[in-house]
Amino acid sequence: MENVSGGTGGDGVFNPNSHDIREIGAAIREIEDVTSLKAILDLEKSGENRASAIVLIESRIKKFSEKVEEGEIDVKSMTIAGIANAIRGIESADELRGLLAQEEGGENRVAVKKQIQNKIESIEGVEILEPIEYIAPEEKYPYLNHPTADKKHVRALKEGKYEDMWVYCETQRGELIDVSREMLGKARELMDKYNQDYKAKEQVVAVLIGEDIARLADECIGHGADIVIYTEHSSLSRFIHTAYTKVFCDMSRSRPKWKKYDEPRYVIFPATNNGRDLSAQVQAELDSGLASDCSDLYIENIVITNPVKTGMPGAKKNFERVLHMKRPDFSGFEYSTILCLDNPHREFHPQGASVIPRSFPVKELESNRKGEVFSHEMEIEDGWVDVAIVGNEEVETGVDLTEYEVIVCMGRGIGKDPTGGIDLGLELVNMFDNAALGITRGIVTSSYKFEGRVEQYAKEERQIGETGQWIKPKLYIGLGVSGAIQHKTGMVESEIIVAI
Ligand SMILES: Cc1cc2nc3c(=O)[nH]c(=O)nc-3n(C[C@H](O)[C@H](O)[C@H](O)COP(=O)(O)OP(=O)(O)OC[C@H]3O[C@@H](n4cnc5c(N)ncnc54)[C@H](O)[C@@H]3O)c2cc1C
Q1: pLDDT, tens digit, 9 for 90 and up, residues 246-305
Q2: What's the CA-to-centroid distance between 470 and ligand 1, angstroms?
Q3: Residue 467 in contact with ligand 1 by CB distance below 6 A
Q4: pLDDT tens across 153-184, in order?
Q5: Could you state, in order of their start, the residue ranges of all structural domains in the chain?
Q6: CA separation for the pair 490, 470 (Å, rounded)
Q7: What CATH number belongs to 401-499?
Q8: CB of residue 469 inside a 6 A radius of ligand 1
Q9: Does domain 159-379 have CATH number 3.40.50.620?
């Protein structure tokens, strides 16, 4: 915590009075104890009673009120998402029934009751009914186009064997990019828990494709991989869609000595430009699905009632070892959890996701971790390398927003008068010594007509967020910015955030 002078209230509690809002923010940043935070709030209310300080402290109280310790869940004061997180770790059906009774006697929310009920069923199990007669989609709906029905290259698996979590480790300029390290750490954590929960011994497999790439194997192991599989070839020196897809799919389906299964159980890719490109095609080629741009992953059993998945209306079926892939929707104001589940007559594996960079921390490199490294040899056909790279030139990086202490960020709130909006933003920028103007992607992709003199400020080089610049200024001022998750990813570490 930052050192904030100015004394404490009784019992050593930080006294917000006589501190400005920034100092209060710094002081409470590491306090997670709701009782202490409430004491600070009381001191503020009985002292200077500033609205901004009260909002700041209350928002922190709200945040940690939902992080309830085991056995202390009070559903009535929690949001639906908070309850979903809290019950994830509960394995006692009786404890869950207690929470269900609490909810029924309180707010009685349908969504909450369903969540708790589903969790009880996933613990206790349910009867699996006989599947109904299967009619292939092309027979059932002959009048529709079925472009994938004759995908001869896809080995339709029935009762296939699936194991392990594969991580596509993207590189740039011959080095792993951070999101590759982040995913390896997350995969390690997921598979350690998986092996414990299911008494299994499945592994994390890092996939490297490129030229002179095997030298990165140790680093992959140090970040959590048990196995590294790589293909090196001079024509793979840069990402080429067709060639990389062919290699990844061949690795997935092949049966070398170390791989005693048909296809990976799970695969994760980075949600970068290349990772998005590769993941979509690989999952289509493997006849499975993809949850793109995920920000969280966990593995759990789940009870499903959808007849497409159970094979019989009204039936419930317990699916085991399901990768739950959480992704922001509606500009990040809602989260969906995507599941890739088998149908009664068709298996969908690998369960696959692409992961937004910086969703997970990079775990410390363990240089003494042990793992195995295998080369996946295959011919790279000329036709797969359908792009010839004749040279390359570094694009100028443009404005570096990370250099400034203050960022004024304009969003689509300026829609009624885009040029006037940018002018207003620039006026504010000029009031600080070390400030610059940033924009949201909403501005970049808009069809606003800017007058020539401000056009330069509406270009992608000033975009802040997941697919733009990642900034940590002392002060971030968002004007007409809704705060979509993809935007927040790039500015949430700002010291002070002002949103208008
Ligand atoms: C894969 C992917 C990657 C993305 N990457 C990024 C990224 O890197 N960066 C990014 O920014 N976005 C990104 N986005 C887009 C993101 O989801 C949002 O659509 C975008 O951030 C919205 O921009 P906005 O806040 O300007 O617009 P909006 O969401 O339309 O918000 C405008 C806000 O202005 C307010 N407003 C209206 N009038 C006024 C007024 N007169 N005064 C004050 N406020 C007003 C409105 O109430 C609203 O809250 C990405 C999306 C995807 C799918």
Answers
A1: 999 999 999 999 999 999 999 999 999 999 999 999 999 898 999 999 999 999 999 888
A2: 16
A3: yes
A4: 455 567 789 999 999 999 998 999 999 999 99
A5: 10-65, 75-124, 159-379, 401-499
A6: 4
A7: 3.40.50.1220
A8: no
A9: yes
